[in-house]
Design a protein that fits this description.
single chain; 4 helices; two-stranded antiparallel sheet; 27% helix; 5-stranded antiparallel beta sheet; rod-shaped
Length: 153
């Protein structure tokens, strides 16, 4: 059981990414994507943490998410299977048995989330209502600001 959890965690370790685009001095757009296994919640988590990270990288302390969009681009396809026929002759009669083995299921695409963010410095008008970026990231905020988000976990 523990090995299965480690394998799933390892598979999801590189399943997410985000990109920030500055749209003005104190605003930015976050575009995040997460693997199908992460689900829409994983993409939302990556986008929200990325908003906090990019706020701190830009030299601000707090942020407000002013808009957002999401999209599910995940699709599942069953690959072709194969038939196997075996036969045997018995008493002058040839009998056959055919079995079908379905092909693998392949899931592709991503869950995507886009956020519009307004950033504030401590003491600026509107900052009192904004989310504290360091609190949003938790005690490991410095490491996350350096490395970014790579996982939807």
């Amino acid at each position: 059981m523990r090995i299965a959890f480690v394998l799933v965690a390892a598979a999801l370790a590189g399943c997410a990414s985000a990109q920030a685009t500055r749209t003005s001095q104190n605003t930015l757009q976050i575009d995040a994507g997460a693997a199908p296994e992460c689900g829409a919640q994983g993409a939302a988590r990556v986008a929200a943490k990325s908003a906090a990270i990019e706020t701190l990288r830009a030299g601000y302390d707090r942020y407000v998410i002013t808009g957002g969009q999401s999209q599910n681009n995940v699709s599942t396809t069953r690959m072709p299977g194969r038939f196997q026929t075996t036969g045997a002759m018995s008493g002058g009669v040839y009998r056959t048995t055919t079995t079908y083995a379905p092909g693998p299921t392949v899931t592709t695409g991503s869950h995507d989330r886009s956020l519009s963010v307004v950033m504030f410095r401590e003491g600026e008008p509107g900052a009192e209502e904004a989310v504290d970026a360091r609190e949003a990231l938790g005690p490991e905020w410095q490491d996350l600001v350096k490395s970014g988000i790579r996982s939807c976990l």
